[in-house]
């Protein structure tokens, strides 16, 4: 039954993450390279925030539509740090949490993903896509 399935059984275990000292230009590169929408931010081995691609787009104020977009974005990104743009009050779930509870959090909060923890250690990311894939696989 779905209420008994743990988040750890469907989460992404290979985590692409940022260090608090990384640049927003590096964040954009990771978003594009790995085709992801959320990056956990780590400092001293601890989760300190999460940066979404939407957060990054919000600060890209200039939209020229021309050949200089990369230069303009880099200039804008250099005006901010990851710490200034990221969400600091991160909602997480524990790895043993049921996918039902995690899905309820995602729906109630309007999230697209949740960092998954074992204690205070980041061990995975659960996305709404992970939940939908699980449902498709198990709804016959």
UniProtKB/TrEMBL annotation:
Pfam families for this protein: CBS
Gene3D superfamilies tied to this protein: CBS-domain
Domain CBS span(s) in chain numbering: 11-71, 86-140
SUPFAM superfamilies: CBS-domain pair
Keyword entries, A-Z: CBS domain, Repeat
Taxonomy, superkingdom: Bacteria
Protein name, as recorded: CBS domain-containing protein
Species of origin: Myroides marinus
